[in-house]
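The methods section describes the discrete structure representation at length, but only in general terms. The central task, working out the structure tokens from the amino acid sequence alone, is never made concrete. Nothing conveys this as quickly as seeing an actual entry. For illustration, here is how one protein appears when written out as sequence plus structure tokens:
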Amino acid sequence: MKGKLDLKIEARKLRKSGKSIKEIKRNLNVSLSSVSLWVRDIKLSKKQLNNLYLNRKTGNLKGSIIAAQNKIRIRELITQKLNKEGFEEIGMLANRERFLIGVSMYAGEGGKTDRDISFVNSDAKLIKFMMGWFRNFCSVPETKFRGSLYIHDDLDEGKAKKFWSKLTKIPLSQFTKSYIAKNNLKRLRKKKHENGIFRIQVSNANLHRKIMGWVDGIFK
């Protein structure tokens, strides 16, 4: 008899192959609610959706799927519009604004231990911004930068290191040993960071104390 985890893995495989939730329920003899929960993050291709919802008599898509597709299109248009409005409202940033944004970001994700100048994130945009901040506002010499990676063992460490090296302009020779996390098969996460989580690190006690002074200046 299959355990719950095995059923969950099998349900996800069936869904990715284009099976309907009802078909998966019948095949695995589990409840509809369980199947819906297990596969809710899996998106089917347009061809798979057509195969599932095509009316065999008329050759037309069923009304329910047409309505769902229309809702998706409307949501995408609204998202694009709001994103554009937000981008335009920010406009061009002055140097002082960029400086203060960097201090705030460091306050949230930067190293607080004395001498530990570091910034950790999986978002390439944030890492790129902070590299510019360290260079422009902290005057960190290129030779002082160190990079390190936190990545799961089922992902490509070499590819990820090249990605971050190209983005940050930190040479691979200045990367320290990666932390390889064992992938937990019992936890099926919706998303996995393909390039891992990157850590910028600089060793400079006086600079760290100054950065913490900037942080205090904003929040105190």
